[in-house]
Every structure is written in structure tokens, then in C-alpha cells.
Design brief:
The complex is a heterodimer of chains A (about 400) and B (about 260). Chain A is an alpha/beta fold. Chain A has twelve helices and 17 strands. In chain A, strands 1, 2, 5, 6, 7, 9, 10, 11, 12, 14, 16 and 17 form a twelve-stranded mixed β-sheet that branches. In chain A, α2 packs parallel to α6, α7 packs across α12 and α9 packs across α10. With about 260 residues, chain B is of the alpha+beta class. Chain B has a single domain, classed as Peroxisomal Thiolase, Chain A, domain 1, CATH 3.40.47.10. Chain B has ten helices and eight strands. Chain B has an eight-stranded mixed β-sheet, with helices on both faces. The longest helix of chain B is centred in the first third of the chain and has 17 residues. Chain B is globular. Classes of the chains: A alpha/beta (about 400), B alpha+beta (about 260). β6 of chain A pairs antiparallel with β3 of chain B.
Chain lengths: ~400, ~260
């Protein structure tokens, strides 16, 4: 694929709102996970809750969209000059020429979950105040983003569970490549809700500690929430020297099971190979793989097999979910932001929570922070339904010196 | 720039039709919709353990998808897939919300993994064996247009890899039905290919025009009632074998024009 310029980006997670706090936390090897105090949830688990979400209103003109998920979206896009960067692009290219593709797994379902506690005792009706389209519906996260940014191009929510906000990069790349649009706002927004917390509990996949990716004693995930956005543009004739690029995307399916990955990591391997091929790169060109690394016993084993099949143990790998938690439908986006920071500032982040990497796993796992030049990063995102997506980011395209 | 695709096969299941041949007769005006509810097909291609677990949306989506693949003569394992739905499994969503509002919040693991919007895509992979990419998109009432656009962009990116597009919907029970009335389950599927060959050609282009409506009031009512039925103006052209141009509903102020031809 033709490399796409990432002309602006921002991320908000439990590590803080905006890139500054995220970078500080990553360089301090800090985790944002804390015991779950969310809503009425009484589960013995840690979560990555974003501070200040409930206090962030959506603009009055978009009041119908008001829900926790869209408040998180609003909080996220207000940082790092992102609103201004999109406005300038819309001015330059025209709002019809910019697409909006947003990944989310649960959008604003929390509103409906709470509304079910307030049904009419006689009729069973939900409160009339519940705005299904603008909160609960999967499209809400994407439609809110499009309206908030005043864009008028194609738009869709992408909801493939935990690969959602990685897939949006692939969709934007194809649309720009085909000439349907000239630029795209992509991202992911997924907020804490009861369905995912109790759902992962039902699968016995929640850790009672901060999650420990790749650790010999790992025992499950810590759920997080996040919002992250990126402005992707066709490569300009002269790119700034410090430019960051989307170089390749690859997606695949496991064709195996709804909630368990392919036992040999075959779908993951296909996605990684496709991303490398799309970027025109060899495995040796990658400096760091940001793993999906959820910290469930079986997911890390299968990902290890897939990554080892592509990279052997020649590349530095780790998961940053011990820092951010697993932001589910926003995981791909927040980890893309981490990949870009790693390239821009020259470091491989730590893996908070990982004490002793599992000797049964074979990839080269970096538990602690390393300061060194990083030119290209692969980011993996795998989800329920066997949905896999790998992305390659870099400071320079393939073939460039 | 216009995106292009060739329709190599069509699948259709919904109220009054159990496959494309029957839907085609209705769309041509050769048969009247009989007013019957959607007959849910058994998900025969899924392993027995999975068969019992799947909801109405998965059943219609898989049936339509496999009908389109069979008509195309392709092997589903060679095809990428694009699924679109406004809501995915409404029955399952309601059941989970009820349990979460109760004192005992123990939801079943199966209900949880079926709650993901891409459940039809996941089951499609299991049933077809395809390890190609499967997207799962939602653009509310414009979901099928979003899917067509994505399928077209996939074909522009990789003309040699056919794409199965499946637009599907299934109703919510009360009380959600009042907020989002979707009267029945429905799915339409296209096997779409790039390059040259057999099948009706499609040319896709974004436009600000208003969506095309249907002259038959019963079909127009269906078009308006279910997001996936927003495809009916295109399906009517394909049923008639006519070259023509229709505008499909997509977003506020933005529609998808589709020209059919050789």
C-alpha cells in the first residue's frame, strides 16, 4: 500500500488524557490500573478507568449523543490540537473528502444497561429519555465523531470486538487508496460497561490483580477504557522530516471459535504476514512488536506461536496492557498511539505487571523500558469471532534510507 | 472516483422470501409478498455444538451469504467477507440487559460471546473455513451502503479477491423494540468480484441525492422498515436484469449511487 501520513493523533486512557501524560507514564513504566470501583460493579478485579469522563460534557448542539462513551470521545478529541488539525484538513480538502471510521465494541450500551433498572413497573417500558440511536447503537461512536468534527464524508463504525480500532486503519487505507476520500479520521472509543465486565467474568477471564502479560503467573485480563484518534492523509510531495507513517495493514480470520483463538496462532500469523507484505517489509525491518498480549493463559500462548512463526525470537516484543488495561474496541487505537510515541521518542515501553516472563513462551519479551531508536513497529489486535488485524507504523517508508 | 464490482451471486432471506429466486419474483412484480414472517433457516453448516447457540441474525446472515457464494460458484475460503448490521442480535442483547439489571448478574458465557457485533462474521469463518478478513460494520440505517462501499474499496485494493457482502438485521424484543422497531429478521448477500467476467457490473459513487424509493407500497414499506432493505432499489434492478441507476440511503446528506450495467 501507499504509506499514509499520520498528521495528527491523540490518546486518552487510564494513564491520562492526551499524549503528554501517556508518554510520561510509559517512560516511568507506570500502570494506570486500579481496583474496580466502576458504577455498581462488585467484581474482584482491576480496571483502567479514565479520570474525568463523567465531568466532560458533549457540546450542547449534540446533547442527544450524551453518554459515557461519547463523553470519552469528546475528552479524547479535545487534546493535542486534534480538533484544529481536523478543521484545517477539512478546510484544505473539503469536509466531504474526509472519512470517519471509528472502532468500538460496546458504544453507549451502558445507558441501556442502566435504563433496564428503571423500566416502567406496569408496562416494562424503558425511560423515554433513552436515545437509542445516539447512545446505545454501535454507530453512535462514529456518528458523534463525524458530527463533532463537522465532517461530511463516508463514515462507519467498525465493530469486530478487540480488533475494531485496528481495522479502521485498514479501511481508511483502502478508501484513500481507491480515491474515495483524501484523508480519514480513524480511531477507537470504548468505555467501561456492565456487559464486558460481567461478560469476561462469566468466561472466568478477569484477573483479580493488575494483569500480567506473558508472565508465568498470568491469570487473566484487566479491562480498560480509552479513546484515541488519528488523522490519516495521502503522502504529501514533501513530508516533514519527523513524519510518522502508517506503512501496512493486514487482517484475517481464525475460522476456529467465537471466543478462543486458533490454537497455533495461524490467523494471527496471516494478519502479521499480510501487514508486512502490504508495507513491503521483511520481519527483520521491525524493531518492536506491540503484542495483543491480553494476559490470559491461552491467548498469550497462541499469540506467541503466531509471532514466533513470523519473527522467531529476533525482535523485541511486549504488551502494554499491564499499563493501560485491555481497552477492547479501543485497544488497537490506543496501542497505535503507543507505537507512534515509541518511534517518535525512541523507546520500547515496559510491561508493568510482568515479573517473570513465562519460559514456555518463545518470543523475545521485554519487560522493562529500553531507550533506543525505533524506526518501525508492528501492533497486533485480535478479537472474538477470530478477528485479527496487524498494523505497521514507521518513521520512514520501506526503501527509504 | 467510482468503485466497481461485478455481482456474481445474490442471497436473500426475509419476510415472504426464503431465497433469491423467490425475492426476485416479488421484485419483478411476478409474485406478491404473501405477508408471511421470515422463515428462519437452520444453520446447517455450523458444527452441532454451535448450531443451537446462534441467534436469528446469524441464521439469516449465514443462509444469505452461502446462497450468494453458491450462486457465484466460488469457494467461500477464497473470499473476504463484509458483514453489516444496524444492531446484530437483539434477543441476546435484551437477555443480557435483563440479567444485568437483576440482583444476580451472572450472564452466560455463550450469551456474552454472541453479543459481539461481529458474531455473524465469526460464525461465518467457522462455517465456511475462510481465514480471509471479515469486517463488521454499522452505520445505523445506512449500514448496507457502508458495506457496499467497503466491499468496493476491498475490490479496488485487491481485484483478485472476491468479497461476500452480507447485510442483516434481526428484531429486538420489547422493551427495546419500541425504541428501535425492526419488524422481522432479514438478510441480503452479494458475491462481488473485481476485474472482468460474468455478472452484472456495479459502479458506486457517493452523491448528495435523495434515496430512490419503490413504486410498490409494500416493498417501499419494507425498504423503510429494515436497514438491510435499503438495498431493495438495487435488488429490484438486478431482479429485472435492467441497466439503470439507483440511489441508496447512507448518511444524512450523503447517499450511495449505484449504476448497473454490463
Amino acid at each position: 500500500m501507499q504509506p499514509l501520513l499520520i498528521s495528527s493523533f491523540t490518546a486518552t486512557s487510564c494513564l491520562g488524557s492526551g499524549l503528554g501524560p501517556l508518554l510520561d507514564a510509559l517512560l516511568a513504566s507506570r500502570s494506570g490500573l486500579a481496583p474496580c470501583r466502576f458504577e455498581t460493579v462488585a467484581l474482584d478485579t482491576f480496571v483502567g478507568e479514565v479520570e474525568g469522563v463523567d465531568a466532560q460534557p458533549v457540546p450542547p448542539s449534540l446533547a442527544g449523543f450524551d453518554c459515557r462513551n461519547n463523553r470519552l470521545a469528546e475528552l479524547a478529541m479535545r487534546k493535542d490540537g486534534f480538533l484544529d488539525a481536523v478543521a484545517a484538513a477539512a478546510n484544505r480538502l473539503g469536509p466531504r473528502r474526509i472519512g470517519v471510521f471509528v472502532g468500538t465494541s460496546t458504544s453507549g450500551i451502558l445507558e441501556t444497561e442502566i435504563a433496564y433498572r428503571h423500566r416502567d413497573p406496569l408496562t416494562g417500558a424503558l425511560p423515554a429519555s433513552l436515545d437509542y440511536r445516539r447512545t446505545h447503537n454501535t454507530f453512535s461512536a462514529a456518528e458523534f465523531t463525524r458530527e463533532r468534527l463537522g465532517l461530511a464524508g463516508p463514515c462507519t463504525a467498525v465493530s469486530t470486538a478487540c480488533s475494531s480500532s485496528a481495522k479502521v486503519f485498514a479501511i481508511a487505507a483502502r478508501m484513500i487508496g481507491a480515491g474515495v476520500i483524501d484523508a480519514a479520521v480513524v480511531g477507537g472509543v470504548d468505555s467501561l460497561c456492565l456487559t464486558t465486565l460481567h461478560g469476561f467474568d462469566s468466561l472466568q477471564l478477569l484477573s483479580s490483580q493488575p494483569c500480567r502479560p506473558w508472565d508465568a503467573g498470568r491469570d487473566g485480563i484487566s479491562i480498560g477504557e480509552a479513546g484515541a484518534y488519528f488523522l490519516l492523509e495521502r503522502a504529501p510531495d514533501v513530508a516533514p522530516a519527523q513524519a510518522l507513517w502508517l506503512l501496512g495493514t493486514g487482517d484475517s480470520s481464525d475460522a476456529h471459535h467465537m471466543s478462543s483463538p486458533h490454537p497455533e496462532g495461524l490467523g494471527a500469523k496471516l494478519a502479521m504476514e499480510a501487514a508486512l507484505a502490504g508495507a513491503g517489509l521483511a520481519p527483520a525491518d521491525i524493531d518492536y512488536v506491540n503484542l495483543h498480549g491480553t494476559a490470559t493463559p491461552s491467548n498469550d500462548v497462541t499469540e506467541d506461536k503466531g509471532v514466533h512463526a513470523v519473527f522467531a525470537n529476533a525482535v523485541a516484543c511486549n504488551s502494554t496492557k499491564g499499563a493501560t488495561g485491555h481497552a477492547l474496541g479501543a485497544a488497537g487505537a490506543v496501542e497505535a498511539a503507543i507505537a507512534l510515541l515509541a518511534i517518535r521518542h525512541g523507546f520500547i515501553p515496559a510491561s508493568p505487571g510482568t515479573r517473570a516472563p513465562d519460559p514456555a513462551l518463545r518470543v523475545r519479551y521485554c519487560s522493562t523500558l529500553e531507550r533506543r531508536p525505533v524506526a518501525r513497529v508492528m501492533s497486533n489486535s485480535f478479537g472474538f469471532g477470530g478477528s485479527n488485524c496487524s498494523l505497521v507504523f514507521g518513521s520512514r517508508p520501506a526503501g527509504a534510507p | 472516483m467510482k468503485l466497481v464490482a461485478r455481482v456474481e451471486g445474490i442471497g436473500a432471506i426475509g419476510p415472504g422470501f426464503t431465497g433469491w429466486p423467490q425475492a426476485r419474483e416479488i421484485l419483478r412484480g411476478d409474485a406478491a409478498p404473501d405477508g408471511s414472517a421470515t422463515a428462519l433457516p437452520a444453520p446447517e453448516r455450523l458444527p452441532a455444538a454451535e448450531r443451537r447457540r446462534v441467534g436469528r441474525n446469524v441464521r439469516v446472515a449465514l443462509a444469505a451469504g452461502f446462497e450468494a457464494v453458491a450462486a457465484s460458484g466460488r469457494d467461500a475460503r477464497d473470499c473476504a467477507a463484509v458483514f453489516t448490521s444496524s444492531s446484530s442480535d437483539g434477543d441476546n442483547c435484551h437477555a443480557i440487559c435483563e440479567v444485568l439489571a437483576s440482583a444476580d448478574r451472572q450472564i452466560s458465557p455463550t450469551r456474552f460471546h454472541n453479543s459481539v457485533h461481529n458474531a455473524p462474521g465469526g460464525y461465518w469463518g467457522i462455517a465456511s473455513g475462510s481465514m480471509k478478513a471479515a469486517d463488521s460494520l454499522c452505520a445505523f440505517d445506512g449500514s448496507p451502503a457502508a458495506g457496499l462501499l467497503e466491499a468496493g474499496a476491498r475490490l479496488a485494493h485487491r481485484p483478485g479477491e472476491a468479497v461476500i457482502l452480507v447485510a442483516h438485521d434481526a428484531p429486538y424484543p420489547e422493551p427495546l423494540n419500541t425504541l428501535r422497531p425492526l419488524p422481522d429478521a432479514i438478510a441480503f448477500a452479494f458475491a462481488l468480484a473485481g476485474g472482468t467476467g460474468l455478472g452484472t457490473g456495479l459502479r458506486l459513487e457517493l452523491t448528495g441525492e435523495a434515496p430512490t424509493t419503490l413504486a410498490d407500497p409494500r416493498l417501499e414499506a419494507l425498504r423503510r422498515a429494515l436497514p438491510s432493505a435499503r438495498l431493495l432499489p438495487l435488488l429490484r434492478l438486478l431482479a429485472a436484469g435492467e441497466a439503470g441507476r439507483v440511489v441508496l440511503a447512507y448518511l444524512d446528506g450523503l447517499s450511495l449511487a449505484v449504476e448497473t450495467g454490463p
